Amino acid sequence: MSQLLKIREFAILLAVKNIKPNIHTLEFFKYTNTISNDWELARQPIYKNNVSQLIFTNGVSIVVETNRVMFLEIVEDKAVSDITIPDIARKYVDTLSNAEYEGIGINYRGYVPFNQEQDSAYKYLTQTLLSKGTWQEIGNAPMRASLNLSYQMENCQLLLGVTDTALQLPEKTSIPALIFSGSFSYEITGENVSERKKNLHQAIDNWQVDLNVYQETINTKFVPSTSTSTSTSENTTEISDLFVIGAAT
Question: Which of 12, 165, 227, 235 lies at a CB distance of 3.0 to 4.6 Å from 89, suitable for a disulfide?
Fold first, then answer.
């Protein structure tokens, strides 16, 4: 089967009560052995009362807010064995095992490039994934659309978002694409700290199973057989603008 989906981002999001972002410094993560001592920052860290943000040269970012902790990694062109954030998330949970964890999201974001026809991705979204009709003809400009779908899986809920975009390539050119955002949402329960930590570890350790479900769902249920997979490995800088985390300002 042709794997047309190109996975760009992988994120693990911990929903947790009453976290203090400003104590989540670079020194905190290194001192607790959550990350390696040789990791280097790609830009100045942000430490505020309501948010802490660390972006590293290896493609990993850590964002801490008062109600969640996010570990994000740029994984395009990485081997599975080189992906680091599941191990980081486990170490974080072990370090702060008494925190009030409420849930965890295993999140993926990828894209499917289409052919060079400017509106090919838009047409596929609005005429194939959606049924064409007069409801699309309101107003004096083409309707903009995105899909937000929810699936109940065996142990979690899968939230899937679909939208069209243009991938910016060198020489100021672009190609149309569909972006697929998938989130496997697990509720964390347990009568004590040990049970909740065990459930968190199980959800984190399930990330490769979730990845396979995400890939298979897109490649077999959503991707058109006529789309053309376009190599983008040489254009990481330009394409990455589509997938940046929100700036903490």
Answer: 12
Tally of domains in the chain? 1
Other residues' Cβ atoms within 10 Å of the Cβ of residue 104? 27
CB 180 within 8 A of CB 111: yes
Q: Of 228, 238, 112, whose CA–CA distance to 178 is shortest?
A: 112
Identify whether the C-beta of residue 145 lies closer than 8 Å to the C-beta of residue 131.
Answer: no
| Domain-embedded: residue 158 | yes
In a domain, 1, yes or no: no
Tell me which residue range forms the domain holding 209: 6-243
- For 90-114, write each residue's pLDDT tens digit: 999 999 999 999 999 999 999 998 8
The percent of residues in the chain predicted with pLDDT above 70, rounded, is: 88
Cβ count within 10 A of residue 165: 16
Q: In this structure, are residues 163 and 91 in contact, taking their beta carbons and an 8 Å threshold? A: no
Q: Write out pLDDT tens, residues 52-94.
A: 999 999 999 999 999 999 999 999 888 999 999 999 999 999 9
Tokens of 232: 């983008």
For residue 130, count CB atoms less than 10 angstroms from its CB and return exposed for 0-12, middle for 13-18, buried for 19 or more.
middle
For residue 219, pLDDT over 70 is answered with: yes
10 Å CB burial of residue 132 (0-12, 13-18, 19+) is exposed
In a domain, 249, yes or no: no
Would residue 73 count as lying in a domain? Answer: yes
